[in-house]
Amino acid sequence: MPANESAVPIVPHPADDHDLIKVRGARENNLREVSVDIPKRRLTVFTGVSGSGKSSLVFDTIAAESRRLIDETYSAFVQGFMPQVPRPDVDVLEGLTTAILVDQERLGANPRSTVGTVTDANAMLRILFSKLGEPHIGGPTAFSFNIPTQKVGGVSVSATGDKKVVKNVIYLGGMCPRCEGRGTVSDIDLSQIVDESLSLNEGAILVPGYTADGWMVRGFAESGFYDPDKPVGAFSEKEREAFLYSKPTKVKVQGINVTYEGLIPKISKSMLSKDLDALQPHIRRFVERVATFTSCPECDGTRLTEGARSSKIDGVSIADACRMQVTDLAAWVRDLKRPEAGPLLDALRANLDAFVTIGLGYLSLDRPSGTLSGGEAQRIKMLRHLGSSLTDVTYVFDEPTIGLHPHDIQRMNGLLLQLRDKGNTVLVVEHKPEAIAIADHVVDLGPGAGTAGGTICFEGTVEGLRGSETSTGRHLDDRAALKAEVRPSRGVLEVRGADENNLQDVDIDIPLGYSRWSPAWLVRARAR
Predict the structure, then answer these.
(1) Are 47 and 54 in contact (CB under 8 A)?
(2) For the segment 177-211, what is each residue's pLDDT rounded down to a tens digit?
(3) How far apart are CA 343 and CA 332, in angstroms?
(4) Does an H or E element contain 68, and which?
(5) Rounded to two decimals, what is the model's pTM?
(6) 3-class DSSP assignment, residue 155
(7) 327-377 confidence digits (pLDDT tens)
(8) Contact (Cβ atoms closer than 8 angstroms) between residue 235 and residue 226
(9) Nearest alpha carbon to residue 430 among 65, 50, 63
(10) How far apart are CA 416 and CA 438, in angstroms?
(11) Helices within 222-296 (DSSP H only)
(12) DSSP readout, 455-500?
């Protein structure tokens, strides 16, 4: 560098001054005029006892206002279809960036939602098999269990604008026609749905919401296909077919055109095809009582058509790949030597390696997303953001280490630091000392919970927190001592032949009368 250039003073750019998120006078929930400066592009951990106001500050104030401001960038027409979020009770919020919440809400209200579909893994596998699978059966949609095979006709318009009339063109999809891509079929106990000794007007339909004087039953009673005052058991074969299995057809009810459909397909669409966890409790109890779900015999639970299962790469079909444990699938992908798919294989390897890095290598891509725990769901959501090109984003985490083994906590810490090092602001609500230790900045709220909390007790470094007289600071390095003796048990809970998820015919006796760790799914397997 020339000597005369070294003497030129460097003038700070005005844009570089905005390196803080400034909160002034926050009063959301139990917060009491909280004012705090949070550094951007750093990892800030919010500590304090449960109920001290951490979530009120991070989620209900900072993140909520960020989401509200983003919503306001849409047109008034679009905003009319979006939930209206009120402005948080705060005087000033400055320096906000786009907030992405990575919480512990369960994934999937769709029975076709799997670990592979909520990440990019399934999409990349479909492309891979469409290019390399033998025999070749079609494009990526031919391997998708969300897309049915369809025969269509109409006018086709080319890229140059040329129009062409097409008839009976088949668009291949990978959805199994028997189970419609759900992997299971239901066997219905008709006696739990209809009391055949009663007529429709007397309440023969036992489905929740189908009361005798309600609109749902009125559509059946006034359809004209049968006498509503006649016991269902006395219906003729034609009347019974119309009542239970009729395809959608137009009828008039009280002068109004409505679509009439048989009772079985109607409740199958509205109840039996939904994820059980997404149903209301009374609907769920009804579904569990009337339906028995078994693996689809046509696709063997793979959700895919026979054609999709027949196309293979080195003897492995896409169904086989999705059933593999992710660690095994990652090893199989690494062994594929196909230069023509090099970039795709590199992206797929990186995606599967990320599973292993966050401690989810034991999952399989065909695992229903609704069966994941809150902690697993949170880490799956994190997978979406690790490879993102976005920077200067605020990521908000709600106790990301909850339920994790100490070894996995270290992995989670590494991922949080990785997000920070990409130039993002990371805000974490946390209790565990191992996670607090990696913070660049700590905000401790308290001193108590509820009305006894809502104030800033400490703000600074982790070392400063250790030396403070706050409740978190005094207990930061405490470690609970194990009891010399355990309380005697009062018998055992016997579990025999448990095979839920990855359990392999497990037999175990769980002592009763004192706390002892056991996998939640093991207990559920016994309860069933």
Answers:
(1) yes
(2) 888 888 888 778 888 888 889 998 888 888 888 88
(3) 16
(4) helix 64-71
(5) 0.69
(6) strand
(7) 999 999 999 988 888 899 999 998 898 888 778 889 999 998 888 887 788
(8) yes
(9) 50
(10) 9
(11) 237-245, 263-267, 281-290
(12) EEEEEE-HHHHHHS-SHHHHHTT--PPPPSSPPPPS-EEEEEEE-S
**What beta strand segments (E) does 306-384 contain?**
312-313, 316-317
Structure tokens at 139: 């494009």
Q: How far apart are CA 130 and CA 517, in angstroms?
A: 45
C-alpha 513/C-alpha 522 separation (Å) is: 18
Q: Comparing 68-82, 94-108, 441-455, which segment has the lowest mean pLDDT?
A: 94-108
Task: Return d(Cα 498, Cα 119) in angstroms, integer.
Answer: 29
Cβ contacts of 147 within 8 Å, gap of 6 or more = 141, 173, 174, 175
Instruction: Please give the DSSP secondary-structure letter assigned to residue 47.
Output: E
| Sequential DSSP letters for 396-461 | EEE-TTTT--HHHHHHHHHHHHHHHHTT-EEEEE---HHHHTT-SEEEEEESSSGGG--EEEEEE-
Structure tokens at 95: 């320096």
Among 118, 115, 136, 139, smallest CA distance to 127 is for 139
Bridge partners, 491 (sequence order) = none
| Residue 94 φ/ψ, nearest 5 degrees | -125, 155
DSSP string, 161-177: S-EEEEEEEEE---B-T
Structure tokens at 16: 């570089």
